[in-house]
Amino acid sequence: MADLTDRQKDEYWRYNVRLTTILLVIWFVVTYIISGVMAGWLNQFVILGFPMGYYMAAQGSLAIFVIEIAVYAKLMNAKDEEYGIREEA
Amino acid sequence: MSLDKLFGIYTIAFLAVTVLIGIGEVFFGLPNAWIGWIFMALSLAIYVFIGIVTRTSNPDQYYVAGRGVPAFYNGMATGSDWMSAASFISMGGALSAQGFAGLAYVMGWTGGYLLLAVFLGPYLRQFGAYTIPDFLGARYGGHAARVIGVIAAIACSFTYLIAQVTGVGLIVSRFIGLDFNVGVFVGLLGVLFCSVLGGMRSVTWTQVAQYIILIISYLVPVVYLSWQIFSIPVPELTYGQLLQRNNASAIQITKDAKEKETRALWKKDADEATEKLKDPNLSEGDRTRLTATRAAALAQARPPAPSEDAKFGYYLTVPSGVGMWNFLALTFCLMVGTAGLPHILTRYYTTPSVRQARTSVAWSLFFIFLLYFTAPAYAAFARFAIYAKLVGSQVADLPRWVTLWKPAGLFDVVDKNGDGVIQWADFVVKSTDFVVLATPEIAGLPFVITGLVMAGGLAAALSTADGLLLTIANAISHDLYYNVIDPSASLAKRLTITKVLLIVTALISAYVATFRLSLIVELVAWAFSLAGASFFPALVMGIWWKRANKAGAVVGMIVGLGITTYYMIGSRFFGVSWFGTLTIASAIFGLPAGFITIWIVSLLTAPPPKHVQDLVVSVRYPKSGQATAREAQGIGLGQH
To answer: Which of A16, B245, B293, B444 is the residue whose CA sits 20 to 30 A from B636?
Structure first.
């Protein structure tokens, strides 16, 4: 591991915590608010035959989870690169 | 040869063989029984072959596949490790019966991967242990946390394993016609060859092969159905139209006079059963039988929409009040359970680096998503087939798939009002498991596709069984025997113990499965709550809070497990009810209790030693997994 200064370590970790928090907030809102509590209300909107409340719980939320994890992997891996954190593997 | 090329050729070869069998069936009249045998023998032969080719006695290979599995393939292996007989066979049917409420499973079993990705996966990889109890032992020190981890790992994995073995027996007995008990043991051969010969290394590559089979066989029938009805081969897009048509049918059926008549007859049956149940001299057997009759009759008497002028049938209706609370609570428990199940977490030990571990979680969810994204479409197509083809048909002239599947006993068709026409209320579903298995026939596809689905269901059950067996055997041999009982045991001795345990565990699970306990399905749902309440808090706190200590973790895990178990057993058998919460969502109480306990007890007791705290911080900055693994071992095994 490249030796990072304490300040760099702090920045790196804070970036990680911020990213994690944002992703978890989206996860929470998508799952429990949009696909849960609000689903009944959303069902009044129908697109391509899909009532939106049902659609979000059945498919929309899943697609968002996949994108979230992909974004997390991409951003964190890029951050490693930026800070010169190299694994010997 | 590169992996991509190898698995590319394998996929094409598998498709080619399927087409060949199809040609054999259509042009040369290959009998159905043969097709079933060919698919089973062929897929088992592939798994056994991979097991033999990848056999190993190197501990790093045996426990964590040499930490050399690329992210993409680890994603596939995790996909089939994760997707069990329940995902493959049961989920489509459960969704088709429950509608919106069933979507808790779809969201819960996918959304958990986000928790895994940001809280656990990459950090566990950086820590670089062999098993999940290994991590607990190294992080918290001493044996207590490790031993509780071993107990929890065995508790959730074993119940889950029995369900897989039962799934194998069902598939083999239904399609091949072997006796259930024989089928169970035949299927286990495929599992044991891999895990015994090559441990994690063999299991990984077999799981990749199994994923390819299971995803092809899940998608083919429903893609064909979508093509047949809409001329667009994307069921995930077209089933919206079916939701509308199904909804219209549900409301029509609620209003229909003949349907009302049939429902009234079922209601009368239920009332009669209620009257008889009032008799205090009833024997225990009669009471159970009458209660079941009444429940079944009431289900038939229920219209598919809440009222005649409702906009949505029950299928699309979003629950409110306690129903919504349970929907959210169950979704949450399935998510934390997903992120806490040891056989899944262990998979992220096998990637070459932390970066690959992160990417690997993304691939895992993508491969799982391909199936889960399609499951609601499966459900809608199946319901459509029942509304459009079965309801209104003559008793004397039932659709072909109905006559083919009726003998299997998963559903029944009874002309309740004797008018010679099938009403919706005449269709009695005993197990929704027929939905995925019968879809090829519903679509009027040749039997080769049914054989394909069978191979897919078998792959789903076997791949999960592989992962679970290994988790149980390693928990006992590595964590309990090597780390706690006999730290001086030689490598050869440890591996021998693991192999013996694999065989013994497999035999015990097969033996238990032959009892066909009805409680199994519930036990699987319990496994999620147990894993969520025991592992999740201890792992997350262990990684994210350096102040978390041994006392906190041990007491926290016991409290989490204790409250969850108390509510599970209390609500299932003794009428305990907190806010009307479902038994299967018990972790909603145990998990927060676990977190709070770890926090409070850790603060009340001495902080963990300096080198442990330093280690927790160092795990935040990825570097060579090997180096950290050695540090972790150093702490965990310091006393030896």
So the answer is: A16
